[in-house]
């Protein structure tokens, strides 16, 4: 039995989405391991119990949540073949993603300004954990920004339309994952 082009494209889309799910689950497991190590480390005598997350991390959390909404809107408008609205939503998402990164680094500078260091002899295990986990998330976010730039490039090359949205869907899935992951990490550090 010969497969039609539509069936082939549907199977291809399912395969790519499944691979992305496997990648996202493995990334989440890495962060789950790090937060587990964080929990175990809180019993150390040199743990900082009075450490408070800077305001910049709250701002960055709001930025990434809003960027997830704007990426979703890009997908919705592309399914309606509204190219100009899709362009706007994708560029707003890119701006919010960059603003998230800036806010994260501003948060790091606030931590240092408050006398806490991430590395070196003056560092603590508390701030080192914060640094490692947020830098790993930022590394994944840089990958997300590259994905977003590829989606924007393909959008300008008119590779997407109302019936061909796989690239935007995959990009949005990964972006939403990064959003959910950061919200988990933020609330973990904020309340634990």
From TrEMBL:
UniProt subcellular location: Cell membrane; Membrane
Residue ranges crossing the lipid bilayer per the database entry: 20-40, 52-74, 86-108, 128-152, 173-191
GO molecular function: cytochrome-c oxidase activity
Gene Ontology CC terms: plasma membrane
Similarity remark: Belongs to the cytochrome c oxidase subunit 3 family.
GO BP terms in the entry: aerobic electron transport chain
Alphabetical list of InterPro entries matching this protein: Cyt_c/ubiquinol_Oxase_su3, Cyt_c_oxidase-like_su3, Cyt_c_oxidase_su3-like_sf, Cyt_c_oxidase_su3_a-hlx
Membrane topology: Multi-pass membrane protein
A Pfam family annotated for this UniProt entry: COX3
Top-level taxon in the UniProt lineage: Bacteria
Keyword flag Magnesium: no
Keywords: Membrane, Transmembrane, Transmembrane helix
Name of the featured protein: Heme-copper oxidase subunit III
